[in-house]
UniProtKB/TrEMBL annotation, chains A, B:
Record-given protein name: ADP-ribose pyrophosphatase
Residue span, Nudix hydrolase domain: 6-141
Organism from which the protein derives: Homoserinibacter gongjuensis
Membrane-spanning intervals of the chain: none
Superkingdom: Bacteria
InterPro entries in UniProt: NUDIX_hydrolase-like_dom_sf, NUDIX_hydrolase_dom, WH-like_DNA-bd_sf, WH_DNA-bd_sf, WHD_NrtR
Length: 228, 228
């Protein structure tokens, strides 16, 4: 029976990228399909699973091939397997989601068939990819609140204002700076580095880093699928 | 490439069952393999994916066929796809996990090739099934604390003592009754039914139910994979 099922691997990649007005927005890169089904529609980067490669490795390789990106965070999202999700035969897709930093996202390949879209304002995508992105958005927003993945959008050190901005953009709501500081400090997820932002300011903001001794998130049972 | 990959569906089923001394223990049913690879070893119930059926439906059907069980809770756990996990060729397994009530578990089929095991004291299983059960245990214990799935082990109504017992057995630690009551009441996850346990007691315990207006857990993007 299983011979009639194709296995694919796709990835939802999130980054905070500047829009035309220079404001950071939650964005995902998509690839335009050049063949049927759904020729011309935008779709998640991915492709057929490879018999010799782990699923996470296939996800990372397909990502690199189409977008040039190498994410700071890669986690399995869900396996999508409804019988009618592809008009050209049964395809089960193992979907990963990934976070990349803003500076990395700026280096991503773009072209006629690869482009970034605002995550909350997508066109009609190929297959069930709108459903998949919607679920990935829900997972990102949920996980941001109970775990500590926001730092994957940032560099290794950051100010509390930068961290709060990541939360504000992803959660799409303003956060009170004093409350945010209290919550973050109470969570003990970040620790001061002892350093400050360099530059000519009178009171330069303190730099923080995540506490690496705390397990960050559920990365699945296999470390190879975790933070790279 | 994907033609060389077999797709399977398996399920980790948890129930609280009485051991020989009559104490409830966290248990899972396993099926003895009757052919290679791993002939004679115990394994998770499951089988090949079916091209005409959703993955969750295959999981539920295989469960019913081997154990007779129809779980109160069924959720996708993870897709396991390491290249070397089966000695007879590449197999990707979409694994579900399920909870069944104690009274249902007592009706489950048992026989020479189907038996219940204590979840924390398993023999060496076929394939990577020890790894899979270990991950399912971790997910169950994590989810019990931040969401509200314990009721799937119970009937629709229960006393706080019964709910605490579920937590104690799954988490393998005693919980202070007064603290537990405060935490559960603060979470607003359960509401009093207004009824009490029937019987001849002077002060019969109050019965509670889960508040159905609160979304219970992340059941994945597809309602068909959720609570049945």
């Amino acid at each position: 029976m299983s011979a009639a099922i194709d296995l694919a691997v796709s990835t939802v990649i999130f980054a905070l990228r500047p829009d035309a007005a220079g404001h950071l927005v939650l964005s995902i890169p998509l690839v335009r399909r050049t063949r049927d089904p759904f020729e011309g529609r935008w779709a998640l980067p991915g492709g057929a699973a490879d018999a010799a490669e782990s699923l996470a490795d296939t996800a990372a390789r397909k990502l690199a091939e189409t977008t040039g990106l190498s994410p700071a965070y890669l986690e399995q999202l869900y396996c999508f397997g409804e019988p009618d999700r592809s008009p050209s035969g049964r395809v089960v897709s193992v979907v990963y989601w990934a976070l990349v930093r803003t500076d990395e996202a700026e280096l991503a390949a773009e072209g006629e068939n690869v482009a970034w879209f605002e995550a909350d304002e997508l066109p009609q995508l190929a297959f069930d990819h709108n459903l998949i992105v919607g679920y990935a958005l829900w997972r990102l927003r949920t996980k941001l609140e109970y775990s500590r993945i926001a730092h994957a959008f940032l560099g290794p050190t950051f100010t509390l204002a930068e961290l709060r901005q990541v939360h504000e953009i992803v959660l799409q709501k303003p956060l009170d700076p004093a409350n945010f500081r209290r919550q973050i400090e109470a969570s003990r997820a970040v620790v001061p580095t002892g350093q400050h932002v360099t530059g000519g300011r009178h009171r330069p903001p303190r730099l923080y880093r995540y506490d690496a001794s705390v397990q960050l998130v559920d990365n699945g049972p296999l470390t190879s699928a975790g933070i790279r």
